[in-house]
Amino acid sequence: MLQVENLNYASPPTVLFQRLSVIFTDLVFIYAAKECCRCVQEQKGSRDVLNRPSFVLAVLLLWNFGLLIVDHLHFQYNGFLFGILLLSVSKHLQSQHLQGALLFSILLNLKHIYLYVAPAYGVYLLRSFCFSQDNKDGSIRWRSFSPLRLLALGAIVVSVCALSFGPFIAMGQLPQVLSRLFPFKRGLCHAYWAPNIWALYNILDKILAMLGVRLKLLQEAELPRASMTGGLVQEFQHSVLPSISPSITLVCTLLSVLPAAASIWRRPRGARGFLRCLLLCALGSFMFGWHVHEKAILLAILPLSILAVESREDAGIFLILSTTGHYSLFPLIFTPAELPIKVALMLMFVIFSFIALTKLHSNSGVASLLHPLESVYLLGLIPVAIACEVIFPLSPWQQKLPFLPLLVTSVYCSMGVCYSFLRLYISLLREEERPKQA
Question: Does the N terminus or the C terminus of the chain have fewer Cβ atoms within 10 A?
């Protein structure tokens, strides 16, 4: 099982080990969900479980559709990793900042994808932990800076990284490790485009290329080979629009998270402000990152569950992001036998999310958490699913355009993810304006 060249090895003991190990490590996620539920405010005197934010949050986390299919059908250990992330977030919500920093340092050395949210941790801990006091207007009090607290944070980060990278440095293998952590030669997009801004950029490039050929403004023979929809993980060149390099994605990602980081530096707004910044960093990196995997959308959906049970506006954003983000994971489970399983699981999760969150925020006086156009967009996932999962496999197009369902799924879902990202930023700007108006 541990021989690298032993490809396609799947003995019954190996499969049993994989399944039991995923189930066992999920205990970390369950404990983290319990700690997060302790951090939300309860409504006193309510006997209906759907009026209890802690119960709704527990179901949204433990019954998360994305984790179920990615870990228990697709087989990965994301639940264990997300458990450490949520446990770290809960420690900050409980004002146990050193424990939260330690957990995040461990998490970052377990899987480097969590670099996405590192800016939120860095700015928040420096602003709200190393500076212990604010002025009356909420601005930073420079004299309250504590060098001892900064040294404590630095010691945690350095010690964890030393344990993790020390052996590789001693054996002279650090360059090999870094080359595998940051595989820039794999291309801008994964074989199946993650539903982000680059999916919209890619489809726009293809549309412009087709129009250029039809209008005889471009010669088809002169265009680069259209390899980005070929199902291969590789570098490619855009046909009409400028090609995107890793440095461009880095700049775009930094620009997308900078306003959120600057916001919690100016006005921290406690651990809830940190959590909102974490979400925007996760989504900004997902939107503009290089070679983003579709499962990375869970990095935003899971923490957003906490805000969704506390705020009506965040609940509406959660419904849009979780529905589109979870549906974008459908191509990971592609065999006909698994179709009814993934459809049933997602329908149950979506129906519960809509019913529970609507009832939880029913005291706001508004019947629906979504605007009419938002509801129309989400209902549009139904014909998209029927076309891609049922009609297309039975059509002759399956042989000529085998990756068309992936393209349609990615592009349609990317619109919902982009919209959710914009709404989260708008809500952040509104929170910044409230103290000024008051």
Answer: C
The one-letter amino acid code at 347 reads L
Per-residue pLDDT tens for 129-151?
A: 999 888 877 778 888 899 999 99
Residue 256 near residue 279, CB atoms below 8 Å? no
Cβ-proximal residues to 194 (8 Å cutoff; 6+ apart), any chain: 286, 292, 293, 294, 296, 297, 328, 410
Using a 10 angstrom Cβ sphere, with 0-12 exposed, 13-18 middle and 19 or more buried, the burial of residue 431 is middle
- Burial bucket for residue 254 (CB in 10 Å: 0-12, 13-18, 19+): middle
What is the chain's alpha carbon radius of gyration, rounded to the nearest angstrom? 23
Q: Which residues of 177-210 are buried (b: 16+ CB within 10 A; e: fewer)?
A: eeeeeeeeeebbbbbbbbbbbbbbbbbebbebbe
The mean-pLDDT minimum among 169-173, 215-219, 282-286, 293-297 falls in: 215-219
Inform me whether the pLDDT recorded for 415 exceeds 90: yes
pLDDT recorded at residue 301: 97
User: 75: left (phi > 0), else alpha (psi -120 to 50), else beta?
Assistant: left
For residue 77 the two structure tokens come to: 């250990």
Please give the span between the terminal C-alpha atoms of the chain, in angstroms, as a whole number: 63
Q: Which pLDDT score is estimated for 44?
A: 67
Distances (CA, A) of 177 to 156, 184, 357: 22, 13, 44
Task: Name 286's Cβ contacts closer than 8 Å, sequence gap at least 6.
Answer: 116, 194, 196, 292, 296, 297, 299, 300, 417
CA dist., res. 190 & res. 293, Å (int): 6
How far is residue 185's CA from residue 300's CA, in Å, rounded to a whole number? 26
Q: Are 53 and 61 in contact (CB under 8 A)?
A: no
**What gap in Å lies between CA 406 and CA 192, rounded to an integer?**
6
pLDDT recorded at residue 409: 95
Identity of the amino acid at 27: L
Pick the closest to residue 303 from 40, 36, 65 (CA basis): 36
Angle at 370 (CA atoms; ends 365, 433), nearest 5 degrees: 75
DSSP state of 7: T
Contact 294, 190 (CB under 8 A): yes
User: Given the structure tokens 């406690």, which residue do they identify?
Assistant: 270
Distance CA 414, CA 320 (A): 11
CA distances from 405 to 103, 198, 215, 284 (A): 39, 17, 27, 25
DSSP state of 335: S
